Amino acid sequence: MIEKNIEANNLFASVLSDVKPSPIHAFDEKVSDLPNILKLTIGEPDFSVPEHIKQAAVAAILADDSHYSVSAGTKQLRQAASHFLADRYDLHYDADTEILTTIGATEGLYAILSAILDENDEVIIPTPAYPVYAAMTRLNKGNPLLVDISQDNFILTPDHLRAILANHTHVKALILTNPSNPTGVTYSAEALSDLADVLRGTDVLVISDEIYSELRYDDQHVSMATFLPDQTLVINGVSKSHAMTGYRIGIIAGPAALITPVNMVHSFIIMTPSNPAMAAATEAFDSSLSASDTEKMKNAYRERRDLLVSKMTALGFEMATPSGAFYIFAKIPENLNQDDVAFAYDLVDQEKLAVVPGSGFGPGGEGYIRLSYAASMAMLTDAMARLSSYCENNSATRIG
Ligand SMILES: Cc1ncc(COP(=O)(O)O)c(C=O)c1O
Predict the structure, then answer these.
(1) Which residues form the Aminotransferase class I/classII large domain (predicted)?
(2) Is the CB of 105 under 6 A from ligand 1?
(3) Which residue of 167, 215, 305, 352 has the fewest CB atoms within a 10 Å radius of its CB?
């Protein structure tokens, strides 16, 4: 039995002292129990899972599909994912050797970082970024290189990337999020091609988190793998596109030489994914009904985005161009409190409206707030009324 007087610090890996719980969830938990709170904090689709997808999970359970699968996931799911990537993004992966089923995008990220990182290897993370990347990099004994891209419209430019590579000799990977959480910004084909030109021939792997690829409002999604297939691992899944966050199914696609070692690590972490969840994800990727399910959700998100953009612009917020995912990342107007954490708590205190402070997403997020528009139009309309009231009451130069 562990003696009571053993200090926790002696028991746990020293890297744990560098890792904090997700700032998004920490903030969300703090404000969740307040009466009348309206939260635009969590990136969680508010739609139900389409009926035909639910039925696929039910059928798997009733058919006693209750045994271990293989660690890469069922062949049916890998084939469905392979067809999906080919149809939607013109990406071509062999279902037998180049696709892996993971427990959400989250486990996919972790398995990749575990497979590639040696102690003190560096991972480029353009910020503001999903906070999980830096935490996972540290947990795998790597060093996150948090690079502020807020001055370049929240896009990593080829010059910036070149400069980072010139100054750092231990870079193992670049994590690219496209479309981005928290900014909603998307990379054009040209921007990706230019980055690929910088990376081609180096030993740097791109971990391309494309979990929001189906939620792109103004143009068609293009994958980094189109331009740098041999050095890219694509992460995708059904969490956001099919409102299936709780089913926990993601995929990794990449060349067999990269997928094989990642699959080995992944098999030690999870053994195999859950069969009913895989049956549901197979239906989500494969069914001809899915395109219209996703389209309906996308149209609803687009309408919500347009509402927030027009209301917030009128209130004086400037924002990153929100062309994908379901987030608005907005700069706090100069006549309001510029400390994003103080601003967010004040907004909760005065108006019972919760948004996430931007600094939780890294250096490029200071002075910003993130709003998730995975919420109903009624909630968003109410949120905008509360934000407007806050701006009116707190602005140094009061409106009107
Ligand atoms: C950029 C990004 N990647 C990955 C994830 C996690 O996806 P999953 O639920 O499939 O693990 C999220 C969830 O918010 C995300 O925003």
Answers:
(1) 36-386
(2) yes
(3) 167
Tell me how far apart the alpha carbons of residues 374 and 295 are, in angstroms, rounded to a whole number. Answer: 15
- Ligand 1 touching residue 177 (CB < 6 A): yes
pLDDT of residue 2: 52
Nearest by Cα to 251 from 103, 79, 397, 116? 103
Q: Are residues 91 and 213 in the same domain?
A: yes
Residue 204, φ and ψ in degrees, nearest 5:
-95, 130
Angle 20-113-163 (CA atoms, 0-180°, nearest 5)?
90
> Average per-residue pLDDT in the chain?
94
What CA–CA distances, in Å, run from 152 to 156, 157, 363?
7, 7, 14
Residue 7's pLDDT band (cuts 50, 70, 90): low
Paired tokens of 276: 């009913």
pLDDT score at 398: 45
What letter would DSSP give residue 63?
T
Domain count, the chain: 2
Q: State whether 131 and 241 are in the same domain.
A: yes
| Strand partners of residue 122 | 143, 171
Q: Which atom of ligand 1 is nearest to the CA of 106?
A: 11
Is the domain of 158 the same as that of 272?
yes
Q: What's the domain range around 132?
A: 51-289
Domain boundary, last residue among 227, 261, 289: 289
Instruction: Based on the fold, state whether residues 302 and 371 are members of the same structural domain.
Output: yes
